[in-house]
Amino acid sequence: MVECSFCGRRAVHYQRTAGVYRCDRCFVENLEKRFRRTVAKNNLVEPRDKIVAAVSGGTDSVSNLHLLAQHLEYRKGEVLSLTIDEGIGGYRDESLPVVKENSQMLGVEHKILSFEKIFGKSLDELAKLSEEKNGPDPCTLCGILRRSLLNQAARELHADKLAIGHNLDDVVQTIVLNYLKGDLSRLYRLGPDLEGREGFVPRIKPLREISEKEAAIYALLNDLSVHIGTCPYIGGMRSEVREFINRMEKNHPTTKYRILRMFDKIRPHLPVNFEDFELKECERCGEPATGQLCRSCELLEELGVERRKKRLISD
Ligand SMILES: [Zn+2]
Ligand SMILES: [Zn+2]
């Protein structure tokens, strides 16, 4: 039996970068401490905050919801869970009950927004249209639509923050992807501090220093109900970047942390000034836009799809 380096109980995890073993209790305690440290260091949560957590049902977002609910109870805040049902056959339909179960367990209100109801079409249908019209690939398309729905819903719910379950792996992949694509403004917006522009609900990523594997172990050790599955549309450059970074991490431990740390150091010096362009309200959905329409409504127009609902949350 391998013993926990801290208490001598049976170890369940080896942290290669620090050379320490942890038992189930010490693992959970350490992860919760790191979660709180990320939140405190970047000032992600304030007392009495109302936070909307985007929860897909995967290990990251479910762990994030539990950690946030725990944290907000002590900060006297409130958390709500929000799931986007994109309409991905055989994938999302299985994860919706999982989010419902976790929300009920925590006594958290759960809202679902469906592409079908809002746009009149599922992602599966939109992806076909986009392919016919040489539009963006399904992953990009989904990302744009989901992002704006999350922001709009959080705004309509009067949330102080929108919490996303992105872990260390996701954040590091996105940093490298934006380098490869040369997208400076996207790169800048990945930072830990909050995007406080009018119309945007600040997005927080409390798991940005916790790896995908650690979030999965946390869910497992806490016996959380999660949906294990891979989105059928995953692919493209992100998969290549993911493989590359995982290989580097294997051969050179702490690569992921070092990419994140380096990014956090250079980010304040990036020559990006958002005050330069003024934001208006999108004519169709009210989201922040640089022109008459926001990116999401522009995309729908290109695909010839008419949006059915202007407001998302009926009060
Ligand atoms: Zn221990
Ligand atoms: Zn719009």
Automatic annotation (TrEMBL):
Residue ranges of domain tRNA(Ile)-lysidine/2-thiocytidine synthase N-terminal in the record: 50-188
InterPro entries: Ncs6/Tuc1/Ctu1, Rossmann-like_a/b/a_fold, TilS/TtcA_N, tRNA_thiolation_TtcA_Ctu1
Keyword Transmembrane helix in record: no
Residues holding Zn(2+) 1: C4, C7, C23, C26
Keyword Metal-binding: yes
Domain of life (superkingdom): Archaea
Keywords: ATP-binding, Metal-binding, Nucleotide-binding, Transferase, Zinc
Gene3D superfamilies, alphabetized: HUPs
Residues annotated to bind Zn(2+) 2: C282, C285, C294, C297
Residues binding ATP, per UniProt: A54, V55, S56, D60, I84, G165, D170
Name of a matching Pfam family: ATP_bind_3
GO biological process entries: tRNA wobble position uridine thiolation
GO-annotated molecular function: ATP binding; metal ion binding; transferase activity; tRNA binding
Alphabetical list of SUPFAM superfamilies matching this protein: Adenine nucleotide alpha hydrolases-like
Residue ranges the record marks as coiled coil: none
GO CC annotation terms, alphabetical: cytosolic tRNA wobble base thiouridylase complex
NCBIfam families with a match to the protein in the record: TIGR00269 family protein (TIGR00269)
The protein, known as: tRNA(Ile)-lysidine/2-thiocytidine synthase N-terminal domain-containing protein
